[in-house]
Amino acid sequence: MKKVITFIGVASLGLVLMLGGCGTKTQPTSTSPQSSTADSAVYKRTEVITSPDVAKQLLDDGNARFTSGKTLNKDISAARRMDLEKNGQHPFAVIVSCSDSRVPPEVLYDEALGDLFVIRVAGNVVTPVELGSVEYAVEHLKTPLVVVLGHESCGAVTAAVQGGEIPGSIGSIVEKIQPAIAKAKISGVTGNDLIEKSTDINVQNAIQDILKSPIVKHAVDTKQTKLLGAKYDLDTGVSTWYNE
Q: pTM for the complete prediction?
C-alpha cells in the first residue's frame, strides 16, 4: 500500500502506542482467495500481500464474484478471530468510502476478516482525522493499496449540490465537497450530471488530500503503496477504477 524523516518515525511510534489495540502483534498470516465459482468454496488467504498490483487484482476478483452472485464463504469462526488476535492484522487495502449503507466495502469486494482497513465517512471526504487513519495503515500495517471509493447517487454530494439549509455538523461535510461542485459547474453540466461529475471530482480531491501526507507520499513515490480512485454503481454492483 520507511520512515520519511526522523520526526515522522517518532510520530508514527506514538500513533502505534495509542492505537495498539488496532495494530499487529506479530507478522500475520493472510492471501489470494481460492479461485472458485462454487457456492460451497471457502475463502482462504495464506500469505501477506505486499504488492499493490496484486492487492488491486484481489479487489477486482472479489467485485466480480459479488456481481455474479458467486461470493465465497467466509471463515468467521472463533478460531479465525483468535488467529487474527494472536497474529495481528495485515489488510491488503485501505478503503476510504462513503458511509452510505448501500456501499459496504467488505461486501462489494467479497473480502473477509482482516483483509480491508475501512475508513467510512459521508461523502468519502478526507480531513486530518481520516488522513491519520490512512497513515496508520500505510506506515504501521504496511498496506500496499489505498482506494478512495465514491459511488453513484451520493447523498452527501447531492445535498451539497442542492444547497439550502444544512443542519448541525452536516455543513462541515458539505463545505468539504463544495470545491468539487464549483469545478464541475465550469463544464456546464446540470442536474444529475452535475451530481455525478461532482462525485468524480470529489474522489480526485480526496486523493490529493491524502497525498498531502508525507508518510503516504513517500510510500507512493517509492512504489510501496498505490493510491487509486474508484466509483461504485449502486444497481449493477460494479466498482470501476478511475483513469484506467
A: 0.82
